[in-house]
Amino acid sequence: MPLLIQNRRIERPVSTVDLFTRFPHLQENAGVFRSKPLVDVDTKCLLYVHQREFAATTPADNSVAVLGSDDATTCHLVLVRHTGSGAVCIAHCDGSSTWSEVPLIMKAVTSLSKGVKEGRLELHLIGGFDDESKTSHKLSLSLLSAFQRQKEDIHLETCCITEMNDVVVDGMHKPVVYGVGINIKTGELFPASFPQKGPAEELRSARTFTGGQMANIYDSKKGVIKIGPCKWSQNLDISFWLSQNDDTILKYLSTSPTAEPPHFVQHIKSTIQFLLEHPSSDSIFPGGQPQCYRRTEQGDWENFVQS
User: Fold this and answer.
1) 58: phi > 0 → left, psi -120 to 50 → alpha, else beta; which?
2) Are 165 and 128 in contact, with CB atoms under 8 Å apart?
3) Any residues with CB less than 8 A from the CB of 294 and at least 6 apart, and which?
4) Is 244 contained in some domain?
5) Does some domain include residue 234?
6) Class of residue 83 by CB neighbours under 10 A (exposed 0-12, middle 13-18, buried 19+)
7) Which InterPro entries match (predicted)?
8) Total domains present in the chain
9) Fewer CB within 10 Å of terminal CB in the chain, N or C?
């Protein structure tokens, strides 16, 4: 079924401007969302999702209270929630494979909502800005089109994307909201930042940096984060980046050099350093097994060997 807005089936928009012109309440909703206070999320209740990752869970999860992701410039943060089961999925999409990613997001929520007769599927899109290369616009339209092709009815509730998420600072366009969190129990959505992005932040960033595709990182029934296994070349010619200045790294390794958060360059350098220190991924995944993490009583994620 096509996407539904205010219970009305919509035709595929030709542009984001077209969408917001036809449905002005989406502009109003985006304005309300942008104006919410930024929340620094406590890592002890958080499941953080990196670029090209997704995770889904339900209110019955005792290990996670908030799903979240940030550092989105041209990327979009996609959340699908079933109002009956409370099951929710968050994905950090960069346009690398939108058509194959959206069905994964949908399946993650519907599989956790089997047997629930009440409720509906609601979609929330946050991210992007009015960037010069129009990368955000392309991803916005691609995501909307991909969700229109799903067989389930999907109600678009929040659409804080591209021009609705844009602000001009010192003559430069930037996103208003870079990150989002969702309260698993209540379904409340809020702008968020995440001082810690673990566990295994460098490993997960290395997976994406070396071309890893969208991956489900969480088993909600067991409360376990699983990373990998994944492969990368032992001959990556990347060491020269560590000697480059910040402007060069931004120019060549970012889709939006003028809009990245302050820690972007250091994040790239630490990811490259991790890859140089681990030229073979085999040592990280002994026996081809994933890296697994579970929540301790103190609220931290601890690495463990899965039996």
Assistant:
1) beta
2) yes
3) 63, 222, 223, 224, 225, 301, 302, 304
4) no
5) no
6) middle
7) NTAN1
8) 1
9) C
**Three-class secondary structure assignment of the chain:** CCCEECCEECCCCCCHHHHHHHCHHHHHHHHHHHHCCCEECCHHHEEECCCCEEEEECCCCCCCCEEEECCCCCCEEEEEEECCCCCEEEEEECCCCHHHHHHHHHHHHHHCCCCCCCCCEEEEEEECCCCCCCHHHHHHHHHHHHHHCCCCCEEEEEEEEHHHHEEEECCEEEECCCCEEEECCCCCEEEEECCCCCCCHHHHHHHHHCCCCCEECEECCCCEEEECCCCCCCCCCCHHHHHCCHHHHHHHHCCCCCCCCCCHHHHHHHHHHHHHHCCCHHHCCHHHCCEEEEECCCCCEEEECCC
For the whole prediction, is pTM greater than 0.90? yes
| Rounded Cα distance, 139 and 73, in Å | 12
Please, which residues bridge with residue 169 across strands?
Answer: 172
Query: How many residues does this entry show for the chain?
Result: 307
Q: Tens digit of pLDDT for each residue in 195-212?
A: 899 999 999 999 999 999
Structure tokens at 243: 């000697």
Is residue 202 assigned to a domain?
Answer: yes
Task: Output the average pLDDT for the chain.
Answer: 95
What integer pLDDT is reported at residue 50 of this predicted model?
Answer: 98
Task: Read off the pLDDT band of 306 (50, 70, 90).
Answer: confident
State which residues form the domain around 17: 4-227+289-300
Backbone angles phi, psi at 294, to 5 degrees: -135, 160
